[in-house]
Design brief:
Strand order of the largest sheet: 1-2
CATH architecture of the largest domain: Alpha-Beta Complex
Distance between the termini: 82 Å
Strand content: 15-25%
CATH topology of the largest domain: Homing Intron 3 (I-Ppo) Encoded Endonuclease, Chain A
Radius of gyration: 32 Å
CATH class of the largest domain: Alpha Beta
Number of strands: 8
């Protein structure tokens, strides 16, 4: 496999221009103190200073082979990912975007934005809430999906189930644990 070398200070940085992996193709890498480090990180770290946690070194002009100091900047990891995702999306034509997004996801995306899709979603949203109740447990007014619901939340459903169980088995604790009041 073809290699390219760059030497800085006492370190040799290598890249593989014909590699199938992008990181090996575009970034020069060396092992410094037993850790893998890219050339642009090394240059930034030695010339400017430490790279803060959660931040990455970004090539301002977009060319990862241009490791000059005035082309390097430190930005947050999330900002960096967002920036490159937007660039990739702009460069990609419609056909390529369809290949980037799974077909069924892309079709859903298109359908949700069509007139027919918006109308059906609107109708479904209107019919989603069917009834208004007063909760048996907390006595609050609530809008529920199920017409037969008598409680407003999971917490109230658990309290109601506990009350029903205690009514059904009123002597359970006395039978199994005796009278606990004197202890």
């Amino acid at each position: 496999m073809e290699k390219e070398y760059i030497t800085t200070d006492e370190y040799i940085f290598t890249r593989y221009p014909n590699s199938s992996k992008r990181n090996h193709r575009v970034y020069y890498v060396s092992f410094i103190d037993g850790k893998r480090e890219t050339l642009h990180h090394y240059i930034y770290r030695t010339q400017i200073g430490r790279i803060p946690n959660g931040f990455v070194v970004h090539h301002i002009n977009g060319n990862p082979l241009d490791n000059s100091l005035n082309n390097l900047d430190v930005i947050s990891r999330s900002e960096h990912q967002s920036l490159h995702a937007k660039e990739m999306w702009k460069k990609a034509d419609k056909d390529k975007r369809q290949r980037m997004i799974p077909k069924e996801t892309f079709n859903k995306y298109v359908w949700h934005r069509s007139k027919k899709g918006r109308k059906q979603l609107s109708e479904r949203a209107k019919n989603q809430y069917r009834g208004k109740i007063i909760c048996e447990v907390c006595r609050k007014k609530a809008i529920v999906k199920n017409v037969e619901a008598v409680v407003c939340s999971l917490k109230c459903r658990r309290v109601r189930a506990s009350r029903i169980w205690r009514k059904k088995y009123p002597d359970y604790w006395k039978e199994h644990y005796g009278n606990l009041k004197g202890k």
